[in-house]
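seq:
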Amino acid sequence: MHLTHRPVQDKDIAAICCFPQGPDELFYMFPKAKYPLTPVQLSEAHRPAQRLDCD
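struct:
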């Protein structure tokens, strides 16, 4: 299997919010978030100012 990646796009946010199926899964994925994960939480976390390694 060949995997690839690309930068997240706005259209991806809603789908990504559906990944965690409960609070424990969300904590593993994104410890600072509150369940259920919302597009606002994810979008704010994606801003470069919120990330340590944004280069």
